[in-house]
Amino acid sequence: MNSKTSKAKEFMTQQLHPDGSLRHLITLEGLPRLLIERLLDRAQSYVRPLGEKPPASRALAGRTVANLFTEPSTRTRVSFELAAKRLGAAVVNLEVQLSSRIKGESMLDTIYTLQSLHVDVMVIRDAETGVHAAVAAHVAPHVSILSAGEAHVAHPTQGLLDALTVRQHKGRFDNLAIAIVGDVRHSRVARSAYHVFNVLGVTDLRIVAPPALMPELDEFGGCTRHTTLDSGLKGADVVMMLRIQKERMAQAELPDADRYFATYGLTPQRLAAARPDAIVMHPQPMNRGIEIASDVADGPRSAIRDQVRNGVAVRMAVLAEVMAPRGVP
Amino acid sequence: MNSKTSKAKEFMTQQLHPDGSLRHLITLEGLPRLLIERLLDRAQSYVRPLGEKPPASRALAGRTVANLFTEPSTRTRVSFELAAKRLGAAVVNLEVQLSSRIKGESMLDTIYTLQSLHVDVMVIRDAETGVHAAVAAHVAPHVSILSAGEAHVAHPTQGLLDALTVRQHKGRFDNLAIAIVGDVRHSRVARSAYHVFNVLGVTDLRIVAPPALMPELDEFGGCTRHTTLDSGLKGADVVMMLRIQKERMAQAELPDADRYFATYGLTPQRLAAARPDAIVMHPQPMNRGIEIASDVADGPRSAIRDQVRNGVAVRMAVLAEVMAPRGVP
Amino acid sequence: MNSKTSKAKEFMTQQLHPDGSLRHLITLEGLPRLLIERLLDRAQSYVRPLGEKPPASRALAGRTVANLFTEPSTRTRVSFELAAKRLGAAVVNLEVQLSSRIKGESMLDTIYTLQSLHVDVMVIRDAETGVHAAVAAHVAPHVSILSAGEAHVAHPTQGLLDALTVRQHKGRFDNLAIAIVGDVRHSRVARSAYHVFNVLGVTDLRIVAPPALMPELDEFGGCTRHTTLDSGLKGADVVMMLRIQKERMAQAELPDADRYFATYGLTPQRLAAARPDAIVMHPQPMNRGIEIASDVADGPRSAIRDQVRNGVAVRMAVLAEVMAPRGVP
Asked: Fewest beta carbons within 10 Å, which of A41, B275, C80, C321?
């Protein structure tokens, strides 16, 4: 067991109550398969067709959820906010940067303050690695920390919603080929997808990236690596596109949007390499015409809007789980 | 029928369900009189005297309203937020600029995301013409788009609250002289007032502005045009003042606040030209001492605070109408 | 009776209904002892141990509370927001600077607008002296103004939570020595503490500050003044530390954090001058290592987290009191 695995074990232990139920959700790495499947089942029970009212519940009545985001206007913040409100919780939004010290106030003083205000769940997005684990190590036993994104490392609710989307469309995780395409090196979405699909038994997992945006070799173990779309998408059941940042294109020696699109952009033509019933996913926001053509994003094989709908269902499931744990069956 | 009228018809069609009930509210132009009167009746039923609790209802229980404003701290945002909450809806506030592309994300991706999060009503303020109609053309059948201000073009809930205020004070729309005073050329408030009073049968509608701030001649058809307050206010029942922007004063060759006030500012003396029971309105925020004297704004003939109170009632009525349409009677 | 006292009387009158019950809370100066004790009793009834759900009530159902803060992300804003929500009120947050004129809009127009939107309670933080009293003098009879901080002058809910914290730990206010330490001159926390402890009968009240940060001699009457920690803390039951601003250290001729800490920082060694069962308080945010050592802030004699928990209880009590007054018993 190398040090990475030990660290995963340590995180896992920290995330679970002694009875195995979920306390925090900081990473999907090393979570028990039964727990992940229970979360997906619960999330599925919260999914409603477009146009129907979402389920309303009082599971979190009397509970308080605080959203701690560095910027307030993200879709993930809104998704968590609506998930909490639909379970009957009170929600407060704070714009904070836990990783830096504002007005001399340390991260932990902010956390202790929220805890003393009877905040039960803190949903945290932070650009610095380790903030979530540090917070989780200090809060009182009844408080749960949920990650809404941690640097390039983890975005666990995104991983769960991706898994739920695949399950809805494919009905299985074995005998599936899933390709993760783009700036894998810097992507928390890719890492959480990697972990959840590993736990769920996906064996044909591929990463497709320009050489400069490939992750180090000690990560993404078991994945095949491809530097061309044609090779990576061949026979794939699921194509997960990632967002590319402008500054990364230069790093990949594809210094403008056109050049990037010509090489790694997903077009209907390129998608033809995948299976005829392959689905296309993207965590959003999309760079249309850069990593994905609008024809594909809005086309019949796109599951992108399902991902958004599943996102709020997954966040409801996680909130309900940490506030009313029932133990691993 | 000229092209403007056709365009109005087209918008109208787009705004209504096939049974004639309200789906979106983007412009008042061309809305049926019966529908507008029903909205005013419903709004009136939500009006309470100052000091009494506003009505509480569960008409929007389980529904979600998203406020999409470019700046968060406007009175209109708060008015819509309270209207939605008093009907039992969940409300999320987003600070977004739909007309520009933020982080490469297009307007429609933001809209589709909110739709997939089971947002039922999107309240949008935008400085660019056409954003509301473009969004309305793309959302799913169960989603309603409400304008909270569109460039210089339309501010329909303001038009409705202005009409409700006039109805409360005057009890009629026929045989009324209404003067709209100030920067009519650039005012969405003036345009929505023009449309609603036209539909409601006001025949003596006047616009009063410095020549440079007069609208083009193909707009405000049927209004008389006045370049002096004395002429425009003569015998008026209702005086609607508009907010003047500093840069517009220069354009009007009245390059400072004192000069503007001396020529177009509403003082008690100038108001004497109107009928003795004339009311004064202003959409706020007011430039006291520039377009209106404090004596008038706070005086016995001011209906300005009634407008604010009516604003939340009108927004409740519109929300209730689009979420529970009953068809045109 | 000097002019200061008259002013206090005037404020007091303005704050109370004719039957003696609380209408506004702008300053604690001159409030009747019975009223303060009733607020503390009510607040105590809202206190719950960490890990238990806070009390839920419908005392403010149908009521609307507006938070008017110049910056949105303060702990006091969140504390008021949660207090209001736990009593069943609708809450809107506005980022406004009442003391300056934004877009030409005056403070009172903002206030009248909120009032017309049926806002029942306005919670205001402002850096300018007198804003709260000016607003309170103009609002309709059913509207209450609560200060969440006024310049260097007053922070009444902080004073109440400080008093509640002392009462919980010491069980009495007579025969208590309380030392207020730090930049007393510029501190609204110190002033509100001074007023509340005076009303509650504390006779041994001490201020400890560098000479340059001592208040003028016509303030803090009855307090002993100390320029060293050793002298001020001797035999104290309660040590209230204040936050120091960087620019004030220079003014105090202690031009860096280390120098300030060496002279006025509270360490376990310095705390030994106080009574063995002395408690330590701080309004937060703390400058750890500048005005207080982490050993003390997180140590067994720290009541700092109790203060936060008491803060939301006190704000619930004040909101319930102004919305449902019962008259002085």
From this structure: A41
The structure tokens 């009240």 sit at C205
Beta-strand ranges (E) seen in chain B are 64-69, 90-95, 121-126, 144-150, 177-181, 204-208, 224-226, 238-241, 279-281
The neighbour count for residue A329, using CB atoms within 10 Å, is 8
Whether C105 and C184 map to the same domain: the answer is: no
- CATH number for the domain harbouring residue C215: 3.40.50.1370
Same-domain status, B149 and B7: yes
C220, C251: one domain: yes
Among C255, C252, C206, C256, CA closest to C229: C206
| 3-state helix, strand and coil shares in percent for chain C, rounded to the nearest 5 | 40, 15, 45
Q: Cβ–Cβ of A112/C56 closer than 8 Å?
A: no
A153 three-state secondary structure:
coil
User: If interface means Cβ-Cβ distance under 8 Å, which residues of chain B face chain A?
Assistant: 61-64, 66, 90, 92, 94-96, 103-106, 109, 112-118, 140-142
d(CA B154, CA B147): 8
Report whether the peptide linkage leading into residue A141 is cis, meaning its omega lies within 30 degrees of zero. no
Burial label, B53 (beta-carbon count in 10 A; 0-12, 13-18, 19+): middle
How many structural domains are present in chain C? Answer: 2
The reply to whether B138 and B232 lie within a common domain is no
Question: What pLDDT is attached to residue B276?
Answer: 98
For C138, the token pair is: 């103009």
- Asked if the Cβ–Cβ distance from C72 to A95 is below 8 Å, we say yes
Domain annotation covers residue A55: yes
Is B208 within the bounds of a domain?
Answer: yes
Q: pLDDT: is C135 or B14 the higher one?
A: C135
- In chain A, the largest separation of any two C-alpha atoms, in whole Å, equals 57
Q: What is the pTM of this model?
A: 0.93
Where do runs of H (alpha helix) occur along chain A? 3-15, 33-46, 75-86, 107-116, 131-136, 156-170, 188-199, 229-233, 246-251, 257-264, 268-271, 294-297, 304-323
Q: Where are the alpha helices (DSSP H) in B24-152?
A: 33-46, 75-86, 107-116, 131-136
Residue A328 falls inside a structural domain: no
Which H or E run includes A149? strand A144-150
Residue of chain B with shortest Cα separation from A297: B109
C2 band by pLDDT with thresholds 50, 70 and 90: very low
**C286 and A117: CB-CB below 8 Å?**
no
CA–CA dist C263, C228 (Å, integer): 8
Full pLDDT tens readout for chain A, 329 residues: 344 555 555 665 689 998 889 999 999 999 999 999 999 999 999 999 999 999 999 999 999 999 999 876 678 999 999 999 999 999 999 988 776 544 445 788 999 999 999 999 999 999 889 999 999 999 999 999 999 999 999 999 999 999 999 999 999 999 999 999 999 999 999 999 999 999 999 999 999 999 999 999 999 999 999 999 999 999 999 999 999 998 898 888 888 899 999 999 999 999 999 999 999 999 999 999 999 999 999 999 999 999 999 999 999 999 999 997 543 33
Query: How far is B303 from chain C, CA to nearest CA, in Å?
Result: 12
Q: Which residue has the tokens 């008042």?
A: B28
Same domain, A201 and A295: yes
Residue B277 belongs to domain spanning: 156-303
A96, A102, A105, A111: CA torsion to nearest 10: 10
Nearest CB to C308 within list A66, A103, A113: A113
**And the tokens for B276?**
């003795």
> A220 and A165 share a domain?
yes
End-to-end CA distance of chain A: 28
Selecting from C72, C290, C308 the residue whose C-beta is nearest the C-beta of A117 gives: C308
Q: Do A296 and A316 belong to one domain?
A: no
Does B328 reside within a domain?
no
B45 shares a domain with B101: yes
**Minimal Cα–Cα distance from B224 to chain C, Å?**
30
